[in-house]
Amino acid sequence: MAKTVEEKQYLVRFRCDTKSHLEIKDHNVCMTQCPDKDCTIFCPAEVYKWEGDRMFVGYEGCHECGSCRIGCGFDNIKWEYPKGGHGIVFRLA
Amino acid sequence: MPEKFDVIVVGAGPAGTSCAYTCAKNGLKVLLIERGEFPGAKNVMGGILYRKQMEEIIPEFWKEAPLERPVVEQRFWFLDKESMVTTSYKALEWGKEPFNNFTVLRAKFDKWFASKAVEQGAVLINETVVLECIVDDGKVVGVRTDRPDGDVYADVVVLADGVNSLLAKSLGFHKEWKPEEVALTVMEVMKLPKKVINERFNVNDDQGVSVEIFGDSTKGALGTAFLYTNKDSLNIGVGTTLSGMIKKKMKPYELLEYVKEHPMIKPYIEGAETEEYLAHLIPEGGYNSVPKLVGDGVIVTGDAAQLVNAIHREGSNMAMTSGRLAAETIMRAKETEDYSERTLDYYRTAIYDSFIGKDLKKYKDATHVFEEHPQYFEQYIPLMNRAMGTFFTVDGTPKREKQSKIIKSFTGKNGRLGVAKDLYRAWRVVK
Q1: pLDDT tens per residue across span B271-293
Q2: Alpha-carbon gap, residue B251 to A40, rounded angstroms
Q3: Which of B36, B147, B176, B222 could make a disulfide contact with B42, Cβ separation 3.0–4.6 Å?
Q4: Contact call for A2 and B163, based on CB within 8 A
Q5: What is the pTM of this model?
Q6: Chain B CB contacts of A64 below 8 Å
Q7: Cβ count near A51 (within 10 Å)
């Protein structure tokens, strides 16, 4: 049984690009204006991790759902599709 | 001279493929562009596909499409912590032709569906992102892709690029969706032997069950969990509005674990092995969120157009119908070689005249009202459970006393007037 998000993510196939399709527009905004860092909570793939003073973006595990772009209260995430054929590859549902 | 098509369809999901299929079948030169490795690679759905709207595109598709089980029973569970009130409808008729709906695995289904459009003559190219629409003098004339020399031209571009709809947004057809206009849903496909599924859900090999779960499954947030039976696997998932997820500070994958561990749900998935974990947004803004649907040389369909009826978990069927209506509109426009917004506006009218527009209108305030008044999910479902518990627990209390206790429990917190208001409000938004 996959219980943790790491275990769940392990079951998913990704064809990662070398270049990130997600980008924090201004790291200073995360640091100074956003105490809750909601993206680190609601992102279903735990792509966003706050480490000390900087937001780390693990784009390799992104499900391309779009939640971070819409849910960031500061419109601080630049969101694109990964290059054609790259990114997540669902096999089932 | 770059190649020119009659129609370019962006996105090979149910909306795009329906449009491509219908156009190609009627002799139009169609290019269908998919950003995934194959159609379906980027698509997620809880797993219920309705027969009627699919059949309008491919009659008797169930004879060859990769489907899981026809649904013969729809269950609804209203969950509290350790109890639930349930209701269901089961009809053997749904297990026979022409069926009502099916459970499907989208990666398989979408791949098959797109192959049918190719059989009709549509050109499918995978692994290609459309970066933007090429606009000339206010008119969409083609698309720019991420391939080298990747500009392609067409009389009409159909945007079926899904909930994130970067293209419709970049054309100014709508602003960014708000967190209350989308539902964040996560799910797992869990492998379980056919025999075990049949026993647990009381069905045979050719019968499926859908379960919609309200209340404690979302910890009171506006949303639902679901459990659907495939041939030899289960789809289990949960979603709430993105705003609900943010407000309650919920981690979606932890909420899914909460659902899987819930004492009312766990026995159904016991021993099942997770095969895949998926996350997706569902556009649930409804009628008031539908963007501008047509422009010069361009039509918006499916999730990109917010065509989802969240109350009845319908979406892919609306997508298919919108794709078909887009195709019919393009064929009409072709007769006069006029692809202006004015001509293509036939599509907008057709959408609003169809069940899509009518159903969206019927529930236009529902999501919004339930979001503003969380008591329906937070208070009434637990109350309903306690009321049933009180009434059916035989403890020597006369039934009349129990009744009055139940009524007091309902009216205690909000007063009689408050409850009456809540009931009236709920009735008004779904009537």
Answers
A1: 999 999 999 999 999 999 999 99
A2: 9
A3: B36
A4: no
A5: 0.96
A6: 42, 164
A7: 7
